[in-house]
Amino acid sequence: MKIGIIGGTGDIGEGMALRLSPRYDVIVGSREETRAIAACDLCREALHEQGLECNLLGGTNQRAIDESEIVILAIPFEHVAPTLEVLTGFENKIVVSPVNPIKRATYFYYAPPPEGSAAMMIKGMLPSSAIVCAAFNTIAAGRWKVLDEELDYSVAVCCDDDEVRQTVMDLVDAVSNLRAYDAGPLAAASVVESVTPLLLNIARFNRMRDVGIKFV
Amino acid sequence: MKIGIIGGTGDIGEGMALRLSPRYDVIVGSREETRAIAACDLCREALHEQGLECNLLGGTNQRAIDESEIVILAIPFEHVAPTLEVLTGFENKIVVSPVNPIKRATYFYYAPPPEGSAAMMIKGMLPSSAIVCAAFNTIAAGRWKVLDEELDYSVAVCCDDDEVRQTVMDLVDAVSNLRAYDAGPLAAASVVESVTPLLLNIARFNRMRDVGIKFV
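Structure tokens for the assembled complex are given below, as produced in the milestone run.
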């Protein structure tokens, strides 16, 4: 199964590439192909240092879509609309959204678009044959990259298609110690996305770093 | 320190009385005094069976306010406005809101009032000298009552007053294995309250019961 990461040279995208490429064929996408290739070289080095083989390829965001079955949108909420506007070929793809619309005052808060959540907005921007799935929303960027530490978190997965949800839950379960939970239809993604500003507040007000959650 | 529980004969209220009364003086409030007294008798029995002494008193909701420093609103969101309208004497009290405005479709979702959260709505309904604090929002009713099981969860606490927040965090930390975290000002309570519909969805779609969270 091939996984394309849009925004693969960003913080979360790079970490995802590191964690996923030992198990899956991963195409790291970027607006600039040269940056994607450079990021892949660094990832490959980091993985080899850990004694891990990987299957990583750098390319444009468009190529990451065209050559993958699963496309992960590893981009900040503000970049979603302009990024999706210039890309095509999402037909029949599984599109994973770890995107959280968050704003900051003296604290972080959830600031969803009119569609109710980033996931629902993304669904509205893509062709109807693309199946959107919210996942990986609550894992801090800083944790993805630290390869010698396990990711020991719960991951809520929202999707309207049972088969696709299971595919993405299997993907989640294949990463480190992550554990996937079915969190219902895509319309329920808002209560998943809004956990992230809470975790940022917990980190901020308790002087912690990269706080995650476990369902217990 | 005396704690009054408004709605103390409800599911969560009764569980809270059981967990708090071995350590604090607790007044269990109800619209009907006789129900509060009956509930206290049952609680006392359950605690004695566990070899625990307690300090429990049943009374009206109004008495639970009048004789306490901390008032816990253990009532469903729908009952908050009609309940608060007939009660007085909140001046200078610490008011704890574990209230979550939730609605249900084929899944649970967060349905806050125009004020942004139940906590902010409650603040707006009380005299300005009352200090509202969101806490205990994410602990399932079913868990409160099972006295021979520890409550091993994280609890996010929102408050605009540092001293009051610390008082409530100490209260949280005194219950079983609960661990309190500062989650920022009261305006940040929406992202705490909205965790509860997520936990209900996780329980529902994964056939689990009484799901809670830990920050890790």
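DSSP finds nine helices and eleven strands in chain B. The mean pLDDT of chain B is 96. Further analysis is deferred to the final report.
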